[in-house]
Amino acid sequence: MILVYAGWTAAALMVVAMVLSLWRILRGPTLPDRILGLDTMFINTISLLILLGVLRGGTAFFEASLLIALLGFVTTISFSKYLLRGDIIE
Amino acid sequence: MVIELIVAAFLLIGAGFAFIGSLGLARFPDFYARLHGPTKATTLGVGGMLIASMVHFSTASGWSLHELLVILFLFLTAPVSAHLMAKAALHLEGRSQGSKQGEEPER
């Protein structure tokens, strides 16, 4: 029972964290701010998926979180590289 | 019961650190300060969640160590992406300061 209450409290905290990073993406004055907000949102998504995996059970959530971690790294690197060089693959 | 309490504590620690990291991202005044906030969400937030998941699934059925993959991957890639983002911000700042007075800075 205590796990359910703690899980829902943690889920509420994670939702607020996602909204804060979405606010930074929408408002961020510079482009690196928006990239950082996107990176934070990817990481919060990983946490939220693992939380759902603990609450619901099953390993599909874990594999999805691994995939999102990989995708988030590639996205951040390619956006930063584009800002630095104006090109991704030279 | 004890296991459930440990899992709940680690879940709350992880979610709390993720929330604090995003709060830092939203509230700090400039980009280099903002870069400092989400690193806490990366290391301690995801770390706490994954430890909770490891404890939970290890007690349910045998050892469950595949969460270590995510921890290892995140700890390897987080410094690289933070370094590249800081480098991009420095690059843009230098380019907008180097432009002339009448020109629109490219931001």
TrEMBL record, chain A:
A single GO cellular-component term on record: plasma membrane
Pfam family, any one: MrpF_PhaF
Bilayer-crossing regions: 6-23, 35-55, 61-84
Sorted UniProt keywords: Antiport, Cell membrane, Ion transport, Membrane, Transmembrane, Transmembrane helix, Transport
Subcellular location: Cell membrane
Domain of life: Bacteria
Any one Gene Ontology molecular-function term assigned to this protein's record: sodium:proton antiporter activity
Record-stated family: Belongs to the CPA3 antiporters (TC 2.A.63) subunit F family.
Protein name: Multisubunit potassium/proton antiporter, PhaF subunit (TC 2.A.63.1.1)
Source organism (scientific name): Thiohalorhabdus denitrificans
From TrEMBL, chain B:
Single GO MF descriptor: sodium:proton antiporter activity
Keyword Chaperone set for record: no
Spans traversing the lipid bilayer: 6-29, 41-63, 69-90
Superkingdom per UniProt: Bacteria
The UniProt record lists the keyword Nucleotide-binding: no
Keywords: Membrane, Transmembrane, Transmembrane helix
Pfam family for this entry, one: PhaG_MnhG_YufB
InterPro entries on file: PhaG_MnhG_YufB
UniProt cross-references to PANTHER family, sorted A to Z: ANTIPORTER SUBUNIT MNHG2-RELATED
Full protein name: Multisubunit potassium/proton antiporter, PhaG subunit (TC 2.A.63.1.1)
